[in-house]
Amino acid sequence: MKIYLVGYMGSGKTTVGKKIAAKLLMNFVDTDILFEEKYNINIADFFERYGEDEFRKREQNILHETLELDNTVIATGGGMPCFFNNMDIISQAGISVFLDISPQSALARLKNATIGRPVLQSIPVEKQLEFIEKQIEYRKAFYSKAQIQRKAESIDIEELVECLKNRICRLC
Question: How many Å separate Cα 99 from the centre of its chain?
Fold first, then answer.
C-alpha cells in the first residue's frame, strides 16, 4: 500500500507524511529527497543549472521509482502532480491525499522555511503572493483529483489516519 501526499509547497506534505507514516507503521519518503540523493544535487541548484523542463522529466522518473515501494507514505514535490500524467499515476498507484493550503498561508510558511524554493527565488517579494495565487489556482485542477482532501491549516492527523485506515481496509 502506498499513500501519496500532494499539494502546494509549504502545505505540510513532509510533516504530515512523517506523522501518518509513524501512526500507520509505514515507511516514509519524500520525492524531493529521493531526487537529491539520486542526482547528487539539491533541487535549487538543479533548477539553476538545467532548468525546470529537465527537472520535471527527472522528477517523473523518481515518481516511477516510487511505484516499486510498498507500505510507504510518499510526500511529492509540489509540482509533481501537475506535469505529464503524474496525477493519474499517483491515483492509480495508491491512495492520494491533497493538502489544500491558502495562498496566504503558503506564503507565510515559505517565508519561514529553511530550505530554498527555486520557483520563488526569481520572484520579487512584492509579487510572490500573486504568483502563489495563480499557481495554486492552476494546480488545484490536478490536486483536486486526489481521493482524499484536507485543509492544510487545520488538519487533524488522528482523523486523517482513521480515514486512511478505513480506505485501506476497503481495498483489502
Answer: 8
- Give percent above pLDDT 70 in the chain: 96
Give the three cell numbers for residue 156.
487533524
Q: How far is CA 57 from CA 43, 53, 66, 106, 151, in A?
A: 13, 6, 15, 25, 29
Cα torsion 38, 42, 44, 50 to 10°: value is -50
How open is the CA angle 45-83-89, to the nearest 5 degrees? 115
Query: If we measure between CA atoms, which residue out of 97, 108, 106, 137 comes closest to residue 16?
Result: 97
- Please name the residues in contact with 21: beta carbons below 8 A apart, sequence gap of 6 or more: 27, 28, 72, 73
Listing from the earlier edge strand, what are the strands of the sheet with 2-6? 27-30, 72-75, 2-6, 95-100, 148-151
pLDDT in tens, 90-144: 999 999 999 999 999 999 998 877 566 766 777 898 999 999 999 999 999 999 9
3-state secondary structure (DSSP) of residue 72: strand
DSSP letter, residue 137: H
In three-state secondary structure terms, 115 is coil
- Per the CB < 8 A criterion, the answer to whether 126 and 70 are in contact is no
